[in-house]
Each structure stands twice: as structure tokens, then as C-alpha cells.
Design brief:
Number of strands: 11
Helix content: 40-55%
Number of domains: 2
Strand content: 15-25%
Oligomer: single chain
CATH architecture of the largest domain: 3-Layer(aba) Sandwich
Strand order of the largest sheet: 1-11-8-7-5-6
Shape: globular
CATH class of the largest domain: Alpha Beta
CATH topology of the largest domain: Rossmann fold
CATH superfamily of the largest domain: NAD(P)-binding Rossmann-like Domain
Distance between the termini: 45 Å
Structural class: alpha/beta
Number of helices: 10
Bound molecules: guanine
Largest sheet: 6 strands, parallel
């Protein structure tokens, strides 16, 4: 039976440490979120983010726009938050409704307030090997791997999914940590074969039971980013019951990657407050 990588516990510990750091710093970091529409999952994520802010002593404010908001309206909200000196971090909950140009909205966020790390400037720095703000889910996974002292240098890492928020930045972070990285996607041939080469396998696909035991090398570390509903239950991308008998370590869903994402958002927001104090730190 694999070691369970307990994201909930590690995130809780990180939040406690962060709370003390913020208290000692004398800073009052502040996060502003924007949500467009009333998607229940997005609303739940936003609530969780605001609750985490409260837990660590970060101020938070939420802008809510109607589901039929235009790109211009969302851009205006972002611009106002960019200008607001009391706001250190700006987060736009994704996905945005179809009529809104997500790329333009993300590019409008001040890179110094980009706590999600999705701005092309910050993604460029990450891919150049000199990250400043890094997307929270992959950075949280790196923290989890580090907490469990999982060796990355020289390891074969396979990432499944090439999204901007997880797959692509995950591959960059693993590469920056000296892993040999393969990034797989919907057009990859023989995905199971690629998976079986991995010492570290990260799945960010969004399909229940996508990663079966036939995709996993005995002794691999398996990271499950998926959050899917299956028969009324929350499950990841990985067939946990089968894969836990093959892997040496595995993240559960829920309680694995999700809490690490939120803890990392809090860390990024505190960091934003620090870098905005002193331009040379940027
Ligand atoms: N929607 C799903 N994941 C994320 C995330 O990491 N950040 C934001 N802003 N929206 C998301």
C-alpha cells in the first residue's frame, strides 16, 4: 500500500507558519477576487479562498459580476483593483463565461499582483527558469513533494494535461528541479506506455479513473490533480483503489492537491505584499 501524501495536513501546517510570519511582519496583505456568474463550483472555490485568507490574517474582498458581463466590464474591474494600493493580489476565478475574452483579462492583471501566476510575463519567467509568481496548483505540488523529500533531480516525470494553470507550469517547475520531463496530452500516442516510464506521474486531465494501474510503473509517485464527480462522489483522475497497490506514494482526492493550491495562494499573496514594498525585490 502506497504512502498517502497528506496535502490537507501539510497545507494546514504551512498556513499556521504563514499566519505567524504575517503577524510578525506587521504587513496587512490583501487579496481581491473577481467572480463572473454563479457557477456553484466556482462560488465554492472562492468561498474557500476567502476563508483561508481569514485563517492566516490576509484581508480579502470579492467583486461579483453578473454571468452576462462583457470583457470590457471585467477589464474595468481588474483595472480598478490594479490601481488600488490596498490590494496586493488580484485573482480572477476561472473559467470565465464564453463571451469574456479570458486571455485579455489575464493579461490585464498587474504582473506584480498576479498571485495566480497566469500572466504571460510570469509564465515567461517560469519557463526561463527564474520564476516570480508561479501558478498555485503546480507550486503547491512542488511543496508537497519537497515536504515528503521526494527526489526530483534526474527523475523521469510525466505530466498528463497541457493546461496553462496546471500541466504547462507543472512541466516547467519539474524541469527547473532537474527532472526529465515528458508532457502528454490528448494527441499523445500510447499514453499508458509513457505513464509507465514515470518515476513521478502527475495527472491533470479532469476525467474520472483516467489513470489506471496499467499506466503506472511499480514504485512511482502519483499526483492526482483531478476533481471529478463519479456516482455522486468526488474522485480524482486516478483509479485510486487499484493504483495505491502499485505506487510508492499517492495523493488522495479530496485532501491531496486541493488544499495545497489554496495554501500556495496565501503564500503568493503574502509574497506580493512583500515585493510591492520594495521594487528592487521585484
Ligand atoms: N479555476 C480552476 N483552477 C483555478 C486556479 O488555480 N485559479 C483560478 N483563478 N481559477 C481557477
Amino acid at each position: 500500500m502506497a504512502l498517502i501524501l497528506d496535502g490537507k495536513k501539510i497545507a494546514g501546517m504551512r498556513l499556521e507558519i504563514l499566519k505567524e510570519e504575517i503577524e510578525k511582519s506587521g504587513l496587512s496583505p490583501r487579496l481581491a477576487t473577481i467572480i463572473v456568474g454563479s457557477d456553484p463550483a466556482s462560488q465554492m472555490y472562492i468561498r474557500m479562498k476567502h476563508r483561508a485568507c481569514e485563517q492566516v490574517g490576509i484581508g480579502s474582498a470579492g467583486v461579483e459580476l453578473p454571468g452576462d458581463a462583457t470583457t470590457e466590464q471585467v477589464l474595468k474591474a481588474v483595472t480598478q483593483l490594479n490601481k488600488d494600493a490596498d490590494v496586493n493580489g488580484v485573482l480572477i476565478q476561472l473559467p470565465l463565461p464564453k463571451q469574456v475574452d479570458t486571455e485579455r483579462v489575464i493579461a490585464m492583471v498587474d504582473p506584480k499582483k498576479d498571485v495566480d501566476g497566469f500572466h504571460p510575463f510570469n509564465l515567461g519567467l517560469l519557463f526561463s527558469g527564474k520564476p516570480r509568481f508561479t501558478p498555485c496548483t503546480p507550486k503547491g505540488i512542488m511543496t508537497l513533494l519537497a515536504e515528503y523529500k521526494i527526489e526530483l533531480s534526474g527523475a523521469r516525470a510525466v505530466v498528463i494535461g497541457r493546461s496553462i494553470d496546471v500541466g504547462r507550469p507543472m512541466s516547467a517547475l519539474l524541469l527547473n528541479a532537474d527532472a526529465t520531463v515528458t508532457l502528454c496530452h490528448s494527441k499523445t500516442k500510447n499514453l499508458a506506455e509513457e505513464g509507465r516510464r514515470a518515476d513521478i506521474l502527475v495527472s491533470a486531465v479532469g476525467k474520472a479513473h483516467f489513470v489506471t494501474s496499467g499506466c503506472v510503473k511499480p514504485g512511482a509517485v502519483v499526483i492526482d490533480v483531478g476533481i471529478n464527480q463519479l456516482n455522486g462522489k468526488l474522485v480524482g483522475d486516478v483509479d485510486f483503489e487499484a493504483v495505491k497497490n502499485i505506487a510508492c506514494a499517492i495523493t488522495p482526492v479530496p485532501g491531496g492537491v486541493g488544499p495545497m493550491t489554496i495554501a500556495t495562494l496565501m503564500e503568493n499573496t503574502y509574497r506580493a505584499a512583500n515585493v510591492q514594498l520594495c521594487d528592487t525585490a521585484w
